Amino acid sequence: MSDNNVKVRFAPSPTGMLHVGNARTALISWLFTRSKQGKFLLRIDDTDQERSKKEYEDAIIQSLEWLGMDWDENARQRDRFDRYNECIEKLKSEGRIYACYETSDELALKRKVLLNRGLPPIYDRAALELSADDIAKFEAEGRTPHWRFKLMHTPIHWNDEVRGDVNFKGEDLSDPVVIREDGSPLYHLCSVIDDVDYNITHVIRGEDHVSNTATHIQMFEALGATPPKFAHLPLLSDGEGGKLSKRLGSLSIIDIRDEDGLEPMAVVSLMARLGTSDPIEAFRDVQPLIDSFSFSKFGRGTPKFDSNDLLRLNKKILHETSFADVKERLNIPEMDEVFWNTTRPNLNKLSDAAEWWNVVNGPVTPVIEDDEFATQAASLLPAAPWDENTWQEWTSAIKEQTGRKGKQLFMPLRQALTGMEHGPELAVLLPLIGPERALSRLQTKKAA
Ligand code: GLU
Question: What was the pLDDT predicted at 447?
Fold first, then answer.
C-alpha cells in the first residue's frame, strides 16, 4: 500500500470526557497519519444510545481541537444502522451470526463452573445445539435472543506495528456477542463494517483491544474484506507522586485546560514521546513531532504518566513563548511586552502572570510588623532608575545598617511590598513595582 493511501480513524465513545489515555491514542493516530500525508477520520462510536451524550461528544471535539488536532472526515455510528443491519442479515444467512437465549445469570454460572475447573471461560456454543422446540419454548417464555459471531477455529495472525507477530487460535476465544437482546448492534461488528466502508488502512488503539482484534480479523474476512494493519499501544500507568489533583484515570483534557490551566503543547509534547525511544522535550510546534514519528520507536513496556513531567514541560514552553504568541490569552490588556519578558522566566502556568500583575500594580495591603524597620528600609531605597540589581543593592545597605540578615531581613520586606509571605522573586518584582509604589507600601503604618 502506498503511503498516501493511509487512512486512520479515531473512534471515541461519547460516554465520558476525553482522558489523557484516549487523548494519547488520538494524538498518536493523528501524528502517524500526518507523517504519512494520510487522511484522518473522526468516528463517533455512539451505538450505546443510553450512555452516549451530546455534551461528551462536544467536549471530546473541543479537547481534540484544543490539542491542535484536525480531521478530514466525520462519521457517526448512529447514522449507519441500516448499513449494519444489511451486513448482519447477510452474516446471519451464512450462519456466521447465531441466536443465543441464555440469560446473563446463566452465562455467569457457566463461566463460574469453567473457572472453578481451572478452564478458560469460553462460551460453549450451547445455542448451536438448540432444537426448533427449544427455541419455541424460550420464545414462549418471552426470551428474546442476543446474537454471537461464530469464530472459525483456525489460527489468527497479524503483524502488529507495535507488538510484532501476534498469534491467537479461534478455539481459544469466545464467540463475541454482536447484537444485544434489544436488537441493537454492538461496537465490534459496527466498527469492522465502518473500517471496511471507510477504507481504513491502520487501526491504532490501546492494547486492551488485542483480543478484540483477533475476533475482528475474522469479521473482516467474513465481510469479504482484507483486514487493515493494527497498532496496539501499551496503556499508560500512573507515575508516583503526580502533582495534579486527579489520578490519571479521571484526568480529562478539559480539566487540564480549565482547572490546571496548562498549555496544550505541554500535553502534546509528553503524549507524543511517552513510551518511545525519543527523548521527552518541550515542543512549541507539532511539526517536529510529526517528522520524527515512527511506530518502530515504541516499546512494549507500560509507560508511566507523571504529571510532574507535564508541569515541567509546561514551564519550559511558557518560558519560550513570545509576547506576541500569548498576548490574546492574557486577560489584562495593560500587560505589555516588558512585563511579559520580565515575569515569564518565573511562570509555572499562564495564570501566574495575573498574580504577578496584582503584586506589581496593587492594590496590595502591606503587612508591616515593625514600623521602625520599614521606615529605615524606605529611607535606604536606591535612586531610580531601577533594574535587576537594585534588590541586591538595597538589601545590602539595609543589612549593613540594621544588622539583620536572612529571613529577619527579607520577610518583612516581602510582606511590606507584596502583602504576602510567598510569591515571585523580589529581585524581579522590585523594578516593576517601582520607587513610588515601593515607598508608599513601606510607609504604610502598622495596623493599630
Ligand atoms: N469506541 C471504541 C473505544 O473507545 C473504539 C475502539 C477502536 O479504536 O476500535 O474503545
Answer: 58
